[in-house]
Amino acid sequence: MMQIVAGLLLLFMLWLLAPGGGVPILAYHQVGSLPEIYSVDAAEFEEQMQYLAEHGYTAISLAELFAAGPGELPAKPVIIAFDDGYEDNYSAALPILEKYGLKGTVFVIAGQVGQPDYMTWEQLKDMQARNMEIGSHTYSHVALDELSPEEQLSELVRSKELLEANLGKPVQFLAYPYGRYNAATLTALKQAGYTAACTGLPGLGTTGGDVYQLKRVNVPRPKFGLWEFRLRLLRAQIYGKLSSLQ
Asked: CA-CA distance, 113 to 99, in Å (whole number)?
């Protein structure tokens, strides 16, 4: 009897840890030495990117995720995303990504472009030319669930139109400021013409569920080095497998 239980437990663990049906969407903010929870030191960021590259991960964009048909994604896809559009995403993160043959997505606060500590339009254009995807983080980085439906739509449309006018490419994706939204937000996203949106909920991003509630892997400043990063990837994988049972 004990052997049967042990065997079933082993099978369950193998299923739980096997690759799931989603993609880890890493959520960064700043890459620098500021002693803040959402500022990852450049050396630690490079260690994480090196780990991804050496363990067979292929960085893709959200657009590639949504354009892929069955079996068209690489074996171990990952999306490397940055919220807010800080200048260090350009000066510190981009060279590291390119060093390891990776790319990412930057969710930009449209109203902050060109302000101190944020990227300029010229830097965003250069990032885009270097295979980085640009998304929206609203116009003014406000908690959307605190706004009326009309104000939410205005935030989403204004950001999208400003980014598209200055960068010359469609903006399809959004990340919710503070991870906050409500039912009116989902309606406004569709009206504004967004393809999908990222939350702050832990797990894997998948096109098979509600595409306006994509889950992500939050990556704050680590306290336990690379092991913490690896555990966050594993936790997202487990959440993704368990959510598939619902």
From this structure: 26
Q: How far does Cα 32 stand from its chain's mean position?
A: 18
> What's the rounded Cα separation, in Å, for the pair 172 and 49?
25
What pLDDT sits at residue 4? Answer: 56
The number of CA neighbours under 13 Å toward the Cβ of 231 is 8
Do 173 and 197 contact (CB within 8 A), yes or no? yes
HSE, CB side, 13 Å, CA atoms: give it for residue 68. Answer: 18
What pLDDT does 14 receive? 41
Q: Is the pLDDT of residue 148 over 50?
A: yes
Query: How buried is 135 (Cβ within 10 angstroms: 0-12 exposed, 13-18 middle, 19+ buried)?
Result: buried
The secondary structure of 167-185 as a DSSP string is: H-S---EEE-GGG---HHH
| Rounded mean pLDDT, 113-124 | 98
Q: Against a cut of 0.85, is the pTM above it?
A: yes
Nearest to 59 by CA among 137, 130, 164, 122: 130
Residues in the chain: 246
